[in-house]
Design brief:
globular, alpha/beta, Rossmann fold, 5 strands, five-stranded parallel beta sheet, 232 residues
């Protein structure tokens, strides 16, 4: 564990990856403030889970910002576009899916950067992953490196030699490895929500997010504690 009292902003969606990233930031000794977004996503249930997860973690602050990306649309998560189901691994690797939200991580990280500057945090954690990343271009190491450089060129903190560091501790881990790490740190995955197309009776079990999650628990040799409507 890193002994530090530094402030960190953690992007918390309420999903498996971001909850694990929060646990890692806390393990490293950071005083964490969580940032979540209500962006018109069809899986808005994740925000209720994010509130529970943040409260149980005892974070300093939890801010939920409205960012109406559904006004822009262009994604199966924010517009009337069908969420793909039952895709195989090769199909998920074949291109950028319709669940990609245009500019989402650029926008979210920009807002995290602004808040971090206000509260005096130099560190930002997020749960992006370049192994099981579903083809999203804004989940790659190259994107993160470029954004960090931009952040330190375009902010007062960067100009005053108080640079920002972006942490993506899961970026090179598989879903199974992420789950094992989270369990070591006490993450309660029954509280997390990953499904792109949920209903009252549970996660769909067939979208890319569900399939990657289920694959990760299988890789870890464990049952997934959340409820599914069906799995294939």
């Amino acid at each position: 564990m890193t002994n530090t009292t530094s402030e960190a902003v953690v992007l918390l969606s309420g999903g498996l990856d971001s909850s694990t990233a929060l646990a890692i930031a806390r393990e490293q000794g950071f005083n964490c403030s969580c940032l979540s977004f209500s962006y018109g996503q069809r899986q808005e249930r994740e925000l209720a889970q994010a509130e529970i997860i943040a409260a149980r973690a005892g974070v300093s602050r939890h801010l939920i910002l409205p960012v109406p990306l559904d006004r822009i649309g262009g994604s199966a998560l924010t517009a009337d576009i069908a969420v793909p189901k039952d895709r195989t691994g090769p199909e998920m690797d074949s291109g950028i899916p319709v669940t990609y939200v245009p500019g989402r991580n650029i926008i979210f990280l920009s807002l995290a950067l602004a808040w971090a500057e206000v509260i005096g945090a130099s560190d930002i954690f997020l749960g992006i992953n370049a192994v099981d990343y579903s083809g999203y271009p804004d989940c790659r190491p190259e994107f993160l490196s470029a954004f960090e450089q931009m952040a330190n060129l375009g902010t007062r903190a960067g100009s005053e030699k108080k640079p920002f560091t972006l942490h993506a501790p899961l970026i090179h881990l598989s879903k199974g490895e992420i789950i094992k790490k989270g369990l070591e740190l006490g993450v309660d995955y029954s509280l997390t929500h990953s499904c792109y197309d949920p209903a009252e009776d549970g996660a769909c079990g067939r979208c890319d997010a569900c399939r990657l999650r289920l694959q990760g628990f299988a890789e870890a040799g464990l049952p997934d504690p959340v409820r599914y409507r069906e799995t294939r």
